[in-house]
Amino acid sequence: MQEYENFEPLKVFLEICAIPHPSFKTQVLKEWIINEATKTGAKVQCDTIGNVLCAKGIPKLCLQGHYDMVYVGESAKFQVKPKFTRRGNKAFLCAENSSLGADNGAALACMLLALRDFANIECLFSIDEEVGMLGARDIALPLHSSYMLNCDSEEIDEVVCSCAGGYDLECKVSIESFAIPQDCELVEIRTQGFVGGHSGIEIHKNIPNAILELAKIAKPLVDYGALIVEFSGGEKRNSIPVNAMLQIAIPQAKHTQCKRILEEISQKPLKDSAHFVLSTFDAKDKRCFNASKVIEAILNLQNGVMATSDNEPILSSNLGILRQTMGDKEVQIHFIAMGRGNQESLMQENITQEKDRLEALGFAVELSDYYAPWEKEESELLNIVWEVMQVKNPKVKLKSIHAGLECGILKQKYPKVCFVSIGPSISHPHSIYEELDLESFVQFNGILREVLKRFQAI
After folding, report:
1. Which of 14, 121, 207, 259 is 20 to 30 Å from the Cα of 303, by its Cα?
2. Residue 376: its pLDDT value, please?
């Protein structure tokens, strides 16, 4: 990609890619950011949770991004190996067999260079955004700017002026377990070829959810008498699951009916490349249980888009995690459904309905990581960003997104600060198919620098 080889933000982003930084494992990248920021002459402050605030002069505008990433891949060391690709006349950066981390690493590269090249600027690098916006929730840093430009949006054609709130419903139940009968045939079913994606900005695409699709298979098997040994899946609470695994024990008397179902699923692929792989498994030290209650709870969850406005989602939910822990005489099932809403009243109504239904099935339900939506506010920052974007990109639209941005939580922490969000185009974030549109990366950097120039003149 010769046309981008001298693009400085790309060089910096590739440096970031070389430093493993999944959520909760960001210390090395944090130290690198502090070192790079110190070279610019910025004053650097950190709070106890790990947020980093860098300031020069008398700040007028704060740029904000997060320095953790959702890592999806098989590398135990969380390695990211970037590679360039081209479709038609468009160039992209992706990664070999893992997520890329352009969310939010591409913006971090631009922020660090802006910190080097501009005076009267702040840059806030927040921690662990991808696991509940923990950095924003517990931030304890003295922000000086009256305006904050969040750099975590993922579409170059949009100026984001509001975003969804969110919450997790954590659901647990204990079920009696028993020894696997001697005459059982053991079958393991794994998902394969599921693409996954962001549970907010891609929830309207009807991307197959690996856990739900496997639950649909589990139900008739259990109805015919199969016993569940293990049912688990999902990678991150805020991504559409790619992987799920079901282990069943089929009693001899139920063999004929269950085998018919298994033959059908092995021959019938789902949407795109999604399908199931069947094999046997070792039942040593394993027990089974009646999973009817669990399957009922999962299949009756409100999942996907539940409400829209102007053909855009304003309420949704995604089953992201399913885990089980086997004890001596019982198994504990734990799953997390993440809800999002652009209207707080809709969020509250859905929380009450789901909580009541799950508790009626015997689940203990806990609401966690709740944050309110960020609603649109008129400001000088919005006017400037909109003017710059219209010149640089005539296709730009003012947008409310159905995803969580730190703006909502930070607005509660800094109520006098006005927020706007922009970013380069990133497709399929939180998945191994994540791609950064390189031309949009160049555009984003130019827009960011023009906005900063306008603020220098104020």
Report:
1. 259
2. 87
pLDDT of residue 1: 66
Burial class (CB in 10 A: 0-12, 13-18, 19+), 402: buried
Cis status, amide bond into 89, omega within 30 of 0: no
Lookup result for tokens 């971090």: 108
Residues 6+ apart with CB under 8 A from 9: 106, 109, 110, 113, 441, 445
pLDDT at 16: 98
Name the percent of the chain in helix, strand, coil, to the closest 5: 30, 35, 35
pLDDT value for 198: 87
Residue type, 131: V
The candidate with the shortest Cα–Cα distance to 137, out of 109, 160, 106, 167, is 167
Say how far apart CA 108 and CA 131 lie, in whole Å.
18
Q: What is the pLDDT of residue 430?
A: 86
Radius of gyration of the chain from its Cα atoms, rounded to whole angstroms = 24
- In angstroms, the CA 239 to CA 370 distance is 17
Look at phi and psi of residue 203 and say left if phi exceeds 0, alpha if psi is from -120 to 50, else beta.
Answer: alpha
Average pLDDT, the chain: 94
H-only helix segments in 337-401? 344-360, 380-392
Q: pLDDT tens-digit profile of 429-456?
A: 888 999 999 999 999 999 999 999 999 8
CB 250 within 8 A of CB 278: no
Say what the pLDDT of residue 265 is: 83
Report the run of H or E that residue 327 belongs to, with start and end. Answer: none
Three-state DSSP at 226 gives coil
Alpha carbons within 13 A on the beta-carbon side of 137:
14
Nearest to 303 by CA among 190, 431, 213, 193: 213
Distance CA 190, CA 246 (A): 7
- Could you list the beta-strand ranges (E) of 128-195: 147-150, 158-163, 165-179, 185-192
* CA distance linking residue 126 with residue 54, whole number of Å: 11
Q: Which two tokens stand for residue 271?
A: 């949407």
Q: Give pLDDT, residue 273.
A: 78
Angle between helix 27-39 and helix 102-117 axes, rounded to 10 deg: 20
| Number of neighbours of residue 103 by Cβ within 10 angstroms | 26
Collect the ranges in the chain with pLDDT lower than 50: none
Dist. CA 417–CA 372, nearest whole Å: 17
